[in-house]
Structure of RING-type domain-containing protein:
Amino acid sequence: MSQNKEYEKELKQVMFTDQQQLKTKIISKLRKPSIKYDYNKKRLSIFELDRKFKEENLRCITCSDYFQKFTLTFCGHSFCYLCIFEHLLKSHKCPSCLTTIKGLQFIYCKTIDGFIQSQVVISSQKNNEQYLSRKKDLKVWKAKKKIQTFNIGDLVDILDTEHIWCVGKILNIIQKKKENQILVHYEGWNKVYDECISIQSPRLSSKGLFTNRKDILLYQPSFNQNTMQNYIRQLEHQQTQQTSLLNYLIFQQQNQNQNYIMAIESADRSTLSNLLSLVIYIREMSNDQNS
Ligand SMILES: [Zn+2]
Ligand SMILES: [Zn+2]
C-alpha cells in the first residue's frame, strides 16, 4: 500500500498541468544558448553568401546589367533574352564560351526573374527604374515582332535552320487543335525548303524587322538577278577583340530528281565573286547548248 502511494507521488511529478507547460519545458531544453548562437551565426553566413551571389552572378556579361528575362543557352551560359537574341543576329558563337549556337532553343526561369526583380526593387530607386524601363523595352520589341494577322500571300520574316533571317511567303494556313500552323515558302529559294511552322514560333517575325537590317547576317543575292539560286554568305567569327570574316559561296543545284547544296569557304570575297560569275557563265553556256 505504501509502495503504491510512492508511485502516485512520482507520477504526479512527471505529469504537466497542460500541453503548453510540456512544450515550454521541452523547447527550453532544446534551445540551449550555445545552439542558438550557432544557428544565428549560420544564418548570417548564408546572408553573406546571398549578398555576394547577387552582385556577381545576377548580371549579364553582354550588357553588365541585371538579367532581363533570364535566358539559358544549351552551353550553360545565361544572358538577357534581348542580349543573346541580338548577339545571334550577328554571330553564331556564344559570347561566353564561343560554342556555336543555332536556333532559339533556350531555357527561361521565372523564379530567377522574380528573385532579380525583388532584389533590384530593394537595392536602389535608380536600379529599379532602369530595370522597369528595360522590361518595357522588351515588351515594345515583342509587340513589334509579333505578326498581327496571318493571310495567305502575306510576307513574313522567318529564321531558317542556318539561323539566318529570310523573307517568307505564307502559302497556306493549317488549322490545328492546339495552335494553327502556316506553310511558308522561302522567297528566292527552292520549294523543297517550304516549311510548316507554328504561328506562335519565335522564328517568325513581322516582315522587315530583321530582313531590312544591314548590320546582321543575311544571305546576299548574287549579282545575276535572274537566278536567285546562288548566294554569297558572310559569317562573322568573333575572337576576343579581333573580328575576322569568312565568306561562303552557296550553290543550289536542282535536277529533275535531286537537289543539293554546295558551299565553298574562303576568307577572300572577291575570289568567290569571280568563281560565282564563272559558274553562272558555264551554266548559261550549257543552257544555250541544251535549248
Ligand atoms: Zn544583357
Ligand atoms: Zn556558352
